[in-house]
């Protein structure tokens, strides 16, 4: 299938139009017309080769919403016209213990096949993501978009949403839970909305009080300013879970004492080093520092259904495909509230 996308051709070059071939449908494949694609920090880091190992040309995009165009002969769950979504992964072995548990993102057998920049399990060709008119994906990794979700705002649920939702489910957040969210960007604003939707008491942790109105509007009960030493002292041992969405190296030391006994600070933002921290607060109250990646397919479908029932949507700014480089520049300086989504309408007409 011939298609057109936008690709990074080098770490220091802007994304430009890129014509390429999607594979012919395998028996278990679904061909999708891409309607919307979220812009994620992972797209930016990969295009810039910030983590090393990027193979160019790179077509980013792993927050994808579209409609089914065609299905392979063995596909049973989807038909042409269905509203569907694809997230961070497009394949896995499906036979290891973790895949069988619905944790495909943790596949043990040669790892997960990511939506872009990853070798295809059959051909070895590099996968290309959702900054394109079309996508071809194995049926098992296609998600159904339930009625009640706005297609134009659902895309960020496929990465930011599930990355925030997965730790909330892992640590059994619900009514009575006391959750703090550190950082109020793309991930953080979803963590606030989802924790509130699950019935938790939600606090936003921020350096100052400048984001208080935004935090309350998103569903938080309060904001705690980390620069206020007296307020931080009063908040000691007051949270069961802290979701740390800060995407850069930072100091965890001020936040660990805020956890109650057996509380957990879970990192979902920074991939890499953090500042040296004091272990005494961990040992003294059986507190934990943990990490959490994206969720599996079953959990992601659960998230989509939950958001449809609760009318939870990311706060999005729609951009045209040709505005992607401007969006990348704004993302680098945190000039977005809270997620960019590419509207493919004009691009599809080309």
> In whole angstroms, how far apart are the ends?
16 Å
Query: Count of helical segments?
Result: 11
Biggest sheet architecture: 7 strands, mixed
In N-to-C order, the SSE pattern is EEEHEEEHEEEHHEHEHEHEEHEHEHEH
Number of E-state strands: 17
Architecture blueprint of SSEs:
Elements: E1 2-7, E2 16-21, E3 29-39, H1 41-47, E4 64-71, E5 83-86, E6 89-91, H2 97-100, E7 113-114, E8 134-138, E9 143-144, H3 151-154, H4 160-170, E10 178-182, H5 186-197, E11 201-206, H6 212-218, E12 222-225, H7 229-234, E13 239-244, E14 259-267, H8 280-284, E15 288-291, H9 297-310, E16 316-320, H10 324-332, E17 339-343, H11 345-348
Parallel strand pairs: 10-11, 10-13, 11-12, 13-14, 14-15, 16-17
Antiparallel strand pairs: 1-2, 3-4, 3-8, 3-17, 4-5, 5-9, 6-7
Helix pairs in contact: 4-5
